[in-house]
Every structure is written in C-alpha cells, then in structure tokens.
Amino acid sequence: MTEYRRHRLKGGCYFFKVNLAERNRTLLTDRIELLRVSFRNVKDQHPFNIDAMVVLPEHIHTIWTLPEGDDDFS
Fold first, then answer.
1. How far apart are CA 63 and CA 52, in angstroms?
2. CB–CB of 27/20 below 8 Å?
3. Tens digit of pLDDT for each residue in 12-62?
4. C-alpha distance across the termini of the chain, in Å
5. Residue 58: which of 5, 13, 11, 22 has the closest Cα?
6. Parallel, antiparallel, or unpaired for β 59-65 and 13-19?
7. Which residues pair with 46 in a beta bridge?
8. How many CB atoms are closer than 10 A to CB 66?
9. Other C-beta atoms lying within 10 Å of the C-beta of residue 67
10. What values do phi and psi take at 27, rounded to 5?
C-alpha cells in the first residue's frame, strides 16, 4: 500500500481535487443541487470553512480552512 506523506496543521488551509471515477461523465454539474445538499449536510456535522470551490462536470477543486485545533481533513 502506498504511504502518502501529508502535512497536517491544526486550523490549516487545505486544497483538494476530487475526480469522478468515470471521467467522461457530467454527474457533478448534472446533479449540482444534490451536491450542494451533500456539502451542507457534511458541514452541519463537521464545521469547516469553504474558502473557494470550483465544480466542473467531472471534478471539483476546493480550498478548506479547518477550525482552530483541528487537523483531521479526512
């Protein structure tokens, strides 16, 4: 198994890129309202700030800032 080196900083700012498994699909933009609801539900359970977000048909770019004292971005 690959061991990724990740820098963890409590209250840090992190960049994520997430791709669909099937890169030829447009699921993220076709179901944008469901994606918004999903993000709201997660934010209700795990407080973090979305500083920036770009949603493209097959992938998402996000920049998040975690609460002070938190470094669990998973």
1. 5
2. yes
3. 999 999 999 999 999 999 999 999 999 999 999 988 999 999 999 999 999
4. 18
5. 22
6. antiparallel
7. none
8. 20
9. 12
10. -60, -40
Contact 31, 23 (CB under 8 A): no
C-alpha angle with apex 52: 15 to 2, nearest 5 degrees? 15
Amino acid occupying residue 33: E
At position 2, the amino acid (one-letter code) is T
Backbone angles phi, psi at 60, to 5 degrees: -125, 140
Q: Which of 48, 44, 38 has its CA nearest to residue 70? A: 48
Q: Evaluate if pTM is beyond 0.85.
A: no
Place of tokens 């998973």: 74
| pLDDT value, residue 72 | 79
Question: What token pair was written down for 63?
Answer: 């920049």
pLDDT score recorded for residue 1: 63
Residue 20's identity, in one-letter code, is L
Residue 14 sits at the vertex; the CA angle it makes with 3 and 5, to the nearest 5 degrees, is 15
